[in-house]
Amino acid sequence: MLFHSFLVGGLGEDWAWAQRYGWMGVDLFFVLSGFLIGSQVLKPLANGDRFSFRAFYFRRAFRILPAFWAVLAVYLLWPGFREAPGMEPWWKFAGFFVNLSIDYGRNAAFSHAWSLCVEEHFYLAFPLLAWLLAKRPSVAGFVALCAAIVIGGIVLRSSLWLHFDALQPARPWFVEDIYYPTWNRLDGLLAGVILAVWKTYRPDSWSRVAARANLVMLGGLATMALAFWLFRERADLLGNSVGWPVLSLGLALLVFAGAQRDSWIGRRALPGAGWLAAVSFSLYLVHKPVYGLVETHLGDVLHGRGFIAFAVYGIASLLAAALLYDLVERPGLRLRDRLLSRAASETGALRPAA
Question: Does some domain include residue 293?
């Protein structure tokens, strides 16, 4: 959110450091998603249970689509809601491939949905891939696949960067061809999946290392420092070749440490973190257009006011997220749980007869 404050001219010098590296928040999201979704998929497979693709996609659909469709409808029906004038056609958003085909120079409105597109592609591909690999598990095969994804990403991004840097086309090629496409953003998801595989298939090793979670956290901080250095120029070759796997490794080490209840960063809950986590998806969807609305009505008053501007933009975004969560997202989740409960009851009732 701090990074996206560039939409309203930034929040002053006091927040320049956060704006410079704030884009890394989405990479933390990818690592968390790879870890959490990976664990959900891998646990039944590791136990020899049947994995229900239907239940998985049913739960994901009710988690994502109601709030997403509601915000997309507002974008389409109310042009004043948009943080930028132009917007890609609705079907690119509905099909979750706007990150693969976008004219960012002219149609930047709702462009932050690119990361949700990456996530949806992960939902589609990973369960099937995990199911296939679990049929004949192989450590060597898994390591080879991970290495191929990392090395392939480095080669692909480097090639794209060198190609477009030489041509210098008159369009934002870094965003459109390197930063947004799914195939260039697999490092964070892979790092999270590796954590999930480790915890699921090697729990004893996970527990032994968990006892040294604070050392892992220090390693994560050191790795993040290296990532900051690699990305000191965000759009240059160094960061966009080897920077992504280094950044993902650092974030994965921090996620591992945070997942341990006895670590320095895992032993205490932050007040309000649970609520913020609950509304985080709604907040992700609405914060950019809310920035635009606040700037339209209060921009002149807030300009140059630093922390006050940060508070106003942030509070307005949180209020909009809470409204979306209470009116759309939470009712959708409740409906999902009722339908799943009913399906489970009907299955249980039919099982003895079968």
Answer: yes
